[in-house]
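A reminder before we start the practical. When you read a complex entry, don't treat the lines as separate problems. The point of joint prediction is that each chain is placed relative to the others, so the output describes one connected object in space. Small molecules and nucleic acid strands, if listed, are placed in the same frame. In the example below there are two entries. Take a minute to note the order of the lines before looking further.
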Amino acid sequence: MSSCEISIVLRPDYEDGPVENFVPARRSVPTEPFTLTIIDNGKPKAKQLLRELASLLEDRFPVANVELVSKPSAGKPLEADVAQSVAARSRMIITGLGD
Amino acid sequence: MAEQLNLSSTEAVEYFFDRGWTDGLPVVPPTPDLVEKFLGVVDLAPDAVIGSVPERDRHLTAEKAAINSVMAGCKPEYFPLVVAALEAILDPEFNAHAVMSSTGGAALCLIVSGPLVKEHGFFHLNNALGSGNRANASIGRAVRLVAMNVFGAQTGVMDASSIGHPGKYSMVLAETPPPTGWPTFAEELGAPADSTSVTVIAAEGPRQIANHLNPDPKGWLLTIASAMRCPATFTVGKGAQVVVVLGYEARQSLARDGWSKDEIRSFLAEHSRISAEELEAAGVLLELDSAHDMVPEEDGLLPSVSSPDDIFLITAGGAGAGWSAYMPAWAPIRHSRATSRLVTKSGHSEIIGGKDV
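Here is the predicted structure of the whole assembly.
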């Protein structure tokens, strides 16, 4: 095949369909007492970092209680039922990514 | 079906570079006729789903696997093995999402055992982990290209490797028949006679191990164990799966001396244990209050392998004074486990092995 000959080649990458518009969650400043959940991804010192963040937020918002959820592996997502349960009882959730 | 692009072959190579669809080396342009040849050797429709990475909301079709295999330089007859390897990679036990994104920079290391080693002409003696062979190079490259192009395992996208290693181009270890009396790796996995297995393990780079003078086979094993307990390795003190490549002299002398593979595994597991003091002397702090706490056991030592059965003992490498090799998994087994498949001509691979293999 000469270098100028037109040929057909196939795309090797993942081809997404059209992305539908979505509406992001409503943002608001909490005024009522609420549960803050921190999700520890299992990395060393993650808990300490997240607890420090929670402490800072407690100074700024009416945090009623702080819950800690620990993942067994940073390399795996939270189990779906655990995520749903956490979402149902928490007004604010913080986690970390990476090391 | 994959989008068709109108490009000359020369333009295609440059276009693929520009789009980030290569591993940094030129690729074979995936024309429809070549892709069709690959799909023609398996019993899979182009849109058949080989597997998925749910965390990335992406799945792999047979067509995309074939396109990337063409690009990697595979022969069509390699395709069933590529498909089996990809199925193993997409097994949830392997946890491809974490393997492909971690800062640890693991390779998708394939271990091939069985008659296809000879049939496809893999290097399994000299340069077993080196360059110069189409099967070793292109099959490992094909799975890496799929990881990059289909699942976004690209620098700046979803591959956060801090350093990485050259095995991320391709890393295929083909087993040479073991000495008489030792089972093959495929047999250990439970594969039927005359069948080929492919195992994938998320691996760090290989460490070459030298022992040129010691006439005692136990000396060989102590040297290998010393490499397996290097404090600088992430999984040492935590425990993980590992690959130990027994080079020509090591496997011959060990077998001649009456060692079984089980005995070798037990010896290596025991002698690769390490004390907290040794880790701390190397500047390694013990992980506590984490996903893998490093707490010394009753003997005061910590493991470097998760169990003797988690040492994959592979015979490979050509004649030469005293070389073996070792590759640790990228992370402890709670994050990822090696997974295996039987290779079938239809492309419908079968699961073999299991958590205890």
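Discuss with your neighbour: The CA atoms of residues 31 and 50 of chain B lie 21 Å apart. What might explain this?
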